[in-house]
Amino acid sequence: MYILILILLVGTSIPLITMSEHYAVLLIYALFTLISFVLISKKKLQFEHFIMALLASSAIPHSVTLGGLNVSISDAYIAVMVVLLVIFSKFELSIPKTYFVITITYLAFCALSLAWANDFTNGLARLIQLIEFMLITVYVFYNIRSTKFLKTMMNWYIGLATVLGAIAVGYSLAQHVTGPLYILGFHKNALGSVLGTSIPLIYGLLLLNKDCSKKVKLTYLFCLFITVFGLLMTMSRGAFLGSIAAIIVLLYFTNKTKQILGILGLIAVCFGLYAFILSPSYLESVTRFDEYSSAYSRVIIYDDVTSKIKEHPYIGHGVGNYFISIPQINFSQDDPNNIFLLNLVELGVVGLVFFVLMILYIVGVAFKNKREFKQNHELLTLNAIFIAGFVARFVHIQVDVSWVRGPGLFMFAMVGMLLSLRKIVKNIKQGS
């Protein structure tokens, strides 16, 4: 069953990366959708079987340009899944209503901001991306019907992250790399995001499967070791911060607050051993702050974005309409390396308020789940894993580019699965 799905995924993913006529990829994905439809309609497979690798596909941010839009494997994958989901739900959309009301309000203001944006094209591309992450991704993952599939999806993601981590570690050791790691077309921060977000998932599944066999525990511990070591190799400071914050959140939401200081101490010891003994040049590279460093560039970016926020403090410059260029380091990007500043400069105070309401709702659901699931170890731990995974990426984008293909989908996949827990419980109660 899974072999068939892998063949279908590989058969559609490879052309997306390698074909020069990228529009032909649309035909391939149309064929994939048709085959999926036939197999599910004949009850050969469940919808969830096809979605198994969707979370893992977010670990591959590489993209091609189709119709002026950058499209990654996960973008194309989720487009197929949402079509199948709508068809097989017989167009009866099951959505988290409160979340959708808040998010659609935010996205509606983003759309309205195109009216005063200087570059409509950039704004439209960003709006499409936000709709994909905040609405489509959440809708698809919200409709997963059992905790079994939720855990399987995380295992697929962890598996791919471990492979990437092993490649990163092997390459670093073989080539004696001491600086930031760039491999397989990954930027160090993109690879760091994949490895950093996998850490709370691995640790959470260890807590969830506390009575599992020794073999399973050793497998998870091996994955944890590889991803942590690989994360160190990337030198992605944002990913470091995100993974540490996520572990703290995970322990808090699983009522293991006494372990937080111990875990932080262990992290400090491991980091110290690596930075001061195994690779003394590592700490110098991470703390570099000269005028050609990425850390110093953030000072210039923050000065620039602050001045632009003052120009239009209430409604911003329009979604997708921030851009900065720093010629002396050959640097340019459309993000101030902070999600709150990005909202302020593009959407002003009004847009920021809508965004904060969305985040507060997500966190509020996690706290509500924590109270209601306190007698159910599985649901309590899954809730903790999903909010921790969300936090890992959310903290990262306080110091890095916010809306990136792959990691952005992962972030809101965590939201969809977090919200799905209450629906799963409700369906179980109705079934009994």
Q: Share of helix among residues?
A: over 70%
What is the tally of helical segments? 17
What is the structural class? mainly alpha
Order of helices and strands: HHHHEEHHHHHHHHHHEEHHH
Low-confidence stretches: none
- Using the alpha-carbon principal axes, give the shape: globular
How many runs of DSSP E, i.e. beta strands? 4
Q: Total domains, how many?
A: 3
Average pLDDT score: 84
How far apart, in Å, are the first and last alpha carbons? 29 Å
| Spatial arrangement of strands, main beta sheet | 1-2
If you had to describe this structure to a student in words, what would you say it looks like?
A two-stranded antiparallel sheet has the order 1-2. The protein contains 17 helices and 4 strands. The model has no long low-confidence stretch (mean pLDDT 84). With 432 residues, it is mainly α. It folds into 3 domains: 1-93; 96-143 and 292-373 and 402-432, no CATH class; 153-287, no CATH class. Residues 223-356 form the O-antigen ligase-related domain. This is O-antigen ligase family protein. One of its GO terms (molecular function) is ligase activity. The chain crosses the membrane at residues 23-40, 47-65, 71-91, 98-117, 123-142, 154-174, 186-206, 218-233, 239-254, 261-283, 340-367, 379-397, 403-421.
